[in-house]
């Protein structure tokens, strides 16, 4: 007789194996949907849904750059990230009411900015700043990786608009970039962790990668026991094809052909 699935730390197990929401395989992404032009007032925007996680991403273009970039002839890309109070199951007060941003927020903002600057020719952008705003309206794990993937679409659409307006001669993108989470929960290596999996993970990792398969960032943390090189390789191998799938979705939406590349 089959054993009755039991709830363990918010996770369901059957026959000693984790049963993921929707019976998702360990190597499967959650359903992905990216809606472009979600905010019509922005130069570029997108709503990304990754399972229950939803993030609104906008790209706003301003003339001028931060002081440390003035006179360089180069542009800049900066990011701001926030979660609305009921993005989670219980209300979280707005950081503005607390008087300062959390360390987590600042870390995520820097990660988003770094990820997008890795695929932009800042000289061709000229002395302009592109502000990337990511507002999480529902958080169920993977908000920072969803923000990077959605922001890439918003950025590409904004640069495409500048080219159509003849502000830019060409779109200053060298590649696409996307991100996904992986982790080890119990004995299993899982792709695209939701909140319940992430909060129980022994190892949590975020992978940011370009369309050419180059890494922008690897964030891997052991919550309890250290992990080995074999675990690291397995997680990277799991993340790579998923990121390439996300990049194909980005390309199908933006229809931006990169210099020297087709499709």
Describe this structure in words.
With 263 residues, this protein is an alpha+beta fold. The chain has one domain (30-254): Ribosomal Protein S5, domain 2. It has helices spanning 95-98, 103-117, 122-125, 143-164, 195-198, 229-254, and strands at 6-8, 11-14, 17-19, 32-36, 44-50, 53-63, 76-83, 128-138, 177-185, 188-191, 203-210, 215-222. A hairpin with a 2-residue loop joins strand 9 (177-185) and strand 10 (188-191). Helix 2 packs across helix 4 (143-164) and helix 4 (143-164) packs parallel to helix 6. Residues 1-8 have low confidence and may be disordered.
Largest sheet: 5 strands, mixed
From the N-terminal CA to the C-terminal CA, the straight-line distance is: 52 Å
CATH class: Alpha Beta
User: Unreliable stretches, pLDDT < 50, 5 or more residues?
Assistant: 1-8
Query: What is the domain total for the residues?
Result: 1
The radius of gyration over CA amounts to 19 Å
CATH architecture: 2-Layer Sandwich
Give the helix proportion (percent range): 25-40%
> Strands of the biggest beta sheet: in what spatial order?
4-5-6-8-7
């Amino acid at each position: 007789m089959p054993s009755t699935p039991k709830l363990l730390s918010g996770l369901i197990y059957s026959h000693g194996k984790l049963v993921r929401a929707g019976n998702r395989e360990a190597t499967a992404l959650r359903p992905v949907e990216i809606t472009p032009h979600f905010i019509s007032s922005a130069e570029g925007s997108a709503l990304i849904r990754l399972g229950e996680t939803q993030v609104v991403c906008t790209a706003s273009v301003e003339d001028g750059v931060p002081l440390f970039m003035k006179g360089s002839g180069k542009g800049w890309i900066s990011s701001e990230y926030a979660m609305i109070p009921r993005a989670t199951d219980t209300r979280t007060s707005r950081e503005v009411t607390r008087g300062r941003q959390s360390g987590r927020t600042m870390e995520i903002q820097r990660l988003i900015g770094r990820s997008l600057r890795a695929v932009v020719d800042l000289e061709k952008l000229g002395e302009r700043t592109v502000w990337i705003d990511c507002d999480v309206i529902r958080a169920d794990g993977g908000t920072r990786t969803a923000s990077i993937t959605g922001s890439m679409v918003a950025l590409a659409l904004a640069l495409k608009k500048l080219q159509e307006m003849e502000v830019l001669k060409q779109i200053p993108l060298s590649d696409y970039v996307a991100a996904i989470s992986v982790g080890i929960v119990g004995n299993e290596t899982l792709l695209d962790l939701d909140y319940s999996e992430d909060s129980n993970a022994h190892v949590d990792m975020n992978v940011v990668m370009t369309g050419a398969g180059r890494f922008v960032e690897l964030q891997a943390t052991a919550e309890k026991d250290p992990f080995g090189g074999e675990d690291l390789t397995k997680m990277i191998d799991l993340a790579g094809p998923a990121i390439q799938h996300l990049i194909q979705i980005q390309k199908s939406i933006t229809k931006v052909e990169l210099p020297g590349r087709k499709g």
